[in-house]
Amino acid sequence: MVKHNFKVSTHWSGGRESVGELNGDILTEQISIPAGLGGNGTGTNPDELLVSAASSCYIISLAAVLERSGFESIVIEQTSVGTAIFENAKFKMDTITHYPIIEVKSNQKELLSKKLEKLLNLADNNCMISNSIRGNVNVKIQPKIK
Questions:
Q1: Is 0.85 topped by the overall pTM?
Q2: How many angstroms separate the Cα of 25 from the Cα of each of 7, 22, 107, 138, 146?
């Protein structure tokens, strides 16, 4: 078993309207409750960070799967949307949908179309964040080939 630690530090002073700080090895950001949920909306928030983690993990996994499958000149533009719901008196992330737009060499587009569903699933299964949230958050992938 391989084990790796990811360390972040957080600091918060005050109540709901306050702004905290998040520091990782590279990431430094202000954090707060989103304005849409009654906070002041300064910096990022845990919900956006969860969707960001899922999106960045998936796009990296997809690029690696495409490369290992022999595709060249890979370009992926992706938007990801997290949908939170209020259920049983609790907020939770219900669904994260990734919308990758995939570009490969023009002579490989037909092959990509044929293998796309299998490659998308393989990327999802290789993504640590998808594996960590599976069973709690529904992850959907809605791709396009450019």
A1: yes
A2: 7, 10, 41, 29, 35
